[in-house]
Amino acid sequence: MTASATIFVSSAGTSAFLPVISEMRNPRDYNKAVYVCMAIVNSAYLSFSLVVYRWCGKWVASPSLGSAGETVKKVAYGVGLIGLIVSACLYLHVGAKYLFVRILRNTRHLQANSVVHWATWLGCTSGLAALAFILAEAIPIFNYLLALTGTICFAPMAISLPGWLWLHDFWHYKDGTMMQKGLWVFHWSLIVLGMFFLIGGTYGVVQEIITAYATGLIGEYTS
């Protein structure tokens, strides 16, 4: 479960796509932007992972670029640090925006330059940043942190939710042709699969973290 969830995390950022379309000048170009983005992302993930695992196998380091040697490791982390900071800011903004809109929806403070508006926004960003920092400190092993992100974020947002939205639009397919019934059942299976990884995957990762503390792999375990 942990290994599967670690793979899934590469697609766990799809929730960040939704705010993009709301800010595009021409929302009809959204599909083209998504196709280009996912083609580049998946090609990069696939090519890098295949090369690393081909030459390192089960001895691959975490993060994987650490397997390339000390010099390449330092260079890679130095270059990647900029992208990491930018990505962290972007994801923090996306998460804070979701929460911010939910809190102030149907109130004048959502777009007004008021004390409530700014207090809520700063509270959302600082609160989520603090939560992310605590999680990162509590789970210092990178693989487990990625796996937990995969089970909590990817499973519901990128597996179950798309299936649920499709069923909402095509519920009548359950009484249609054999092909339509097959699609209806398939999208139900996506919901079930997502819930399985959300519950079972999260449980498996948490157990791995507990074991890592108990064996001394992470700090010192105290009951």
Explain what you see.
The protein has 223 residues and is mainly α. The protein has 2 domains: 1-62 and 141-223, no CATH class; 68-140, no CATH class. It is 74% helix and 0% strand. The chain is built from 7 helices and no strands. It is globular, with a radius of gyration of 21 Å. The chain starts with a helix and ends in a 9-residue tail after the last helix. The model has no long low-confidence stretch (mean pLDDT 84).
Major beta sheet summary: none
Tally the beta strands.
0
Detail the poorly predicted runs: none
Shape designation:
globular
End-to-end distance: 25 Å
| Estimated structural class | mainly alpha
Topology:
Elements lengths: L1 H7 L8 H6 L7 H27 L13 H35 L10 H24 L3 H28 L8 H37 L9
Helix pairs in contact: 1-6, 4-5, 6-7
Short structural description:
This protein has two domains: 145 residues, no CATH class; 73 residues, no CATH class. The protein contains seven helices and no strands.
List keywords for this structure.
223 residues; single chain; mainly alpha
